[in-house]
Amino acid sequence: MKATAKLRYLRMTPRKVRMAADLIRGKKVAEARILLSFAVKHSALPVLKTLNSAVASAKNNFAADEANLYISRIAVNEGPKLKRYRPRARGMAYEIQKKTSYITIEVDELEQKRAKAKKAPAQKAPLTPASAKASTGAVKPRFRPERREIRLREQQGIAQRIFRRKSI
């Protein structure tokens, strides 16, 4: 059960709206509402309104419990741009793009109310000499580098990126 709400043609840039969307991605609805209501971002209000719409849709259409809902997906995409022009020196005109955003929020239940049918337990295969050998631990484990080696590799990668830069 996924309830969806969409807001289209919001006159804010998607980059700014994504900052508010990243605050609540994957959170429970109650926690997300608190975060958005106290967020200083200007884009938090439209995201909060869209979230409220998705929750109302879930309650109305699927009889979902609001305390059991979480944000399963939130996407902020680019909408059409309004193009305006500003006069500049020597008779030129510079284009100004007034960007718009599309917000899509999906809410889902943490625990489904319906009981799922239980599967029958799988039958165990008879033990063969090869499987007995594997269960005793005689098989060699796969190679896993130590943490120190991993850290050294990461540090070398950072050093290579720094010294790859061109100097003036």
TrEMBL record:
GO biological process: translation
GO molecular function, one term: rRNA binding
InterPro entries: Ribosomal_uL22, Ribosomal_uL22_bac/chlpt-type, Ribosomal_uL22_bac/org-type, Ribosomal_uL22_sf
Keyword annotations: Ribonucleoprotein, Ribosomal protein, RNA-binding, rRNA-binding
Region span, Disordered: 116-147
Entry GO terms, CC: cytosolic large ribosomal subunit
SUBUNIT field: Part of the 50S ribosomal subunit.
Family listed: Belongs to the universal ribosomal protein uL22 family.
Function: The globular domain of the protein is located near the polypeptide exit tunnel on the outside of the subunit, while an extended beta-hairpin is found that lines the wall of the exit tunnel in the center of the 70S ribosome.
Protein name as catalogued: Large ribosomal subunit protein uL22
Organism of this sequence: Candidatus Wildermuthbacteria bacterium RIFCSPHIGHO2_01_FULL_49_22b
